[in-house]
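Researcher: Structure prediction, please.
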Amino acid sequence: MLIRLTYASQIAADRDRSDIEAIVEQSRPANQRRGITGVLAFHDGRIMQILEGPEREVLALYERIRMDDRHHGVVELQRETIDVVQFERWGMTSRPLADVLLMVDGY
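Model: Predicted structure follows.
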């Protein structure tokens, strides 16, 4: 079963955008092997990420994300079963928050 999970959080005070970009680059190969795609948005210290893929893999990743001390205040915004992934051609990428919010309406 495929799912899409969206969450938001606040970046830790000692981190910045370059840290977020490094996380996206570092995690891209592992996420690809696990069949996880999505998008991460960062703006003014806030993070919003959409993860999609096999339920077990997405939930395991989300649990690791929740425990990561590079951010705090992780709040799950949405979890839903999907038939197909929307970000298959993207892999895992970073976009401005406004772009991601516009994509959410396009589901």
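Model: The chain has three helices and five strands.
Researcher: Thanks, that helps.
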